[in-house]
Amino acid sequence: MKVIAIDSSGLVASVAIVEDDTLTGEYNVQYKKTHSQTLLPMLDELKRMVELDLSTVDAIALTKGPGSFTGLRIGSATAKGLGLALDVPLVEIPTLDGLACNLYGTDKLVCPIMDARRNQVYTGIYEYIPEQEEGVVSYVQKCILPQCAVSIDEIAAKCNELGREVIFLGDGVPVFSNRLKELMKLPYGFAPAHMNRQRAAAFAPLAMQYLKEGKGIAARDHAPEYLRPSQAEREKRTRIREMEAADGERSFFHAMVVPGFFGNGGSGLRQLLCGGVKRKDCRLLRYQKYSGRGRDHQCGGGCRLQESGNRKANDAAYAEKSCRPEHYRLHP
Q1: In what order do the strands lie in the sheet with 268-273?
Q2: Partners of 140 in beta bridges
Q3: Helix or strand or coil: residue 117?
Q4: Using an 8 Å Cβ cutoff, are 329 and 272 in contact?
Q5: Residue 165 class from Cβ within 10 Å (0-12 exposed, 13-18 middle, 19+ buried)?
Q6: Which string of b and e fits 15-29 if b means at least 16 CB within 10 Å?
Q7: What pLDDT score does 32 carry?
Q8: 188: which strand partners?
Q9: Phi, psi angles (nearest 5°) of residue 286
Q10: Looking at the chain, which terminus has fewer C-beta neighbours within 10 angstroms, N or C?
Q11: d(Cα 283, Cα 280) in Å, to the nearest integer?
Q12: 34 and 10 in contact (C-beta within 8 Å)?
């Protein structure tokens, strides 16, 4: 079984080619270039160096997140492109699971920490359980704390609670090492330089195991796992909350006259009065043509709407185009 493994979730760009139990080639770079500049050239160089026939590849393995939003997208696009072109499955590896593979076989707790900014880390806690078969010992990775985004104080407290020696690794170590010195109450250590960052070769065997267990997916179905919203999404939500708060404080309705869609020929108008001004989540007073008996409606923001039989209003033009009709839905 031959697998191409890719990792661009952090500061390191890493590619590896593994066939069964043999690491055919590995290329890691952590330098002042973006993954869009390094990842594909690295893969191409490695392919030429080992004379790889792409038609012999059985799967593409990649870290699915969390990590750098841009890095994950670059790795995702690269892996999906290869998977679609070669018609082979993708094997998704959680980033922290893959990082913990660097310390395969240790009897200590393994705690990868990646700097997630905003005083948080992407982290998890792992251990390796020995299993013996016919005198041969192998080690199975067990997840104690699934990958998550928390403060360094929270993960240190969890490690202290478990009461065992811990090895930390990842790009969060140089950022939070001084803080860990203050927080840790039990013996702990840091992985050495050749083991403390993402390596595609380290998680490739785990990917092969997943592939044998039928955990491969079609390339078109892959999507990165971010664990939390991006900065752009957070800023958008903040702006929306600020706008809604400002709308509520102004304490008036926006009005709109729109052609009716409820009736089959009636000429009356339905006046929908939103009672949600003080709720700050609803801002519409609109009129709509209708026929038949009146019915109550429910605003999508949670406010009750009522009808009126005002037949004198003109529904030919919009009085106000800044209202938000997406709030509303009909409740027969």
Answers
A1: 255-258, 285-290, 268-273
A2: 129
A3: strand
A4: no
A5: middle
A6: bbbbbeeeebbbbbb
A7: 83
A8: 166
A9: -135, 160
A10: C
A11: 8
A12: no
Cα angle value 176/148/104 (rounded, 5°)? 75
Give per-residue pLDDT as tens, 49-80.
999 999 999 999 999 999 999 999 999 999 99
Round to whole Å and give the CA distance between 323 and 301. 13
Q: Compute the radius of gyration of the chain from its Cα atoms.
A: 28
- Cα separation, 71 vs 80, in Å, equals 14
For residues 98-112, one letter each, b for 16 or more C-beta atoms within 10 angstroms of the residue's C-beta and e for the rest, the string is bbbbbbbebeebbbb
The candidate with the shortest Cα–Cα distance to 325, out of 301, 306, 295, 296, is: 301
Nearest to 78 by CA among 228, 210, 203, 219: 219
The pairing of strands 2-7 and 90-94 is unpaired
**Secondary structure letter of residue 326 according to DSSP:** G
Cis status of the peptide bond prior to 112, with omega within 30 of 0 = no
C-alpha angle 155-160-166 in degrees, rounded to nearest 5 = 80
The type of residue at 205 is P
- Alpha carbons 311 and 304: distance in angstroms, whole number: 22
Tell me, rounded to whole angstroms, the distance of Cα 170 from its chain centroid: 19
User: CA triplet 167, 173, 176: central angle to 5 degrees?
Assistant: 115
Q: Supply angle C-alpha 294, 304, 261, rounded to 5.
A: 45
Q: Which two tokens stand for residue 213?
A: 């267990």
Which pLDDT score is estimated for 124? 98
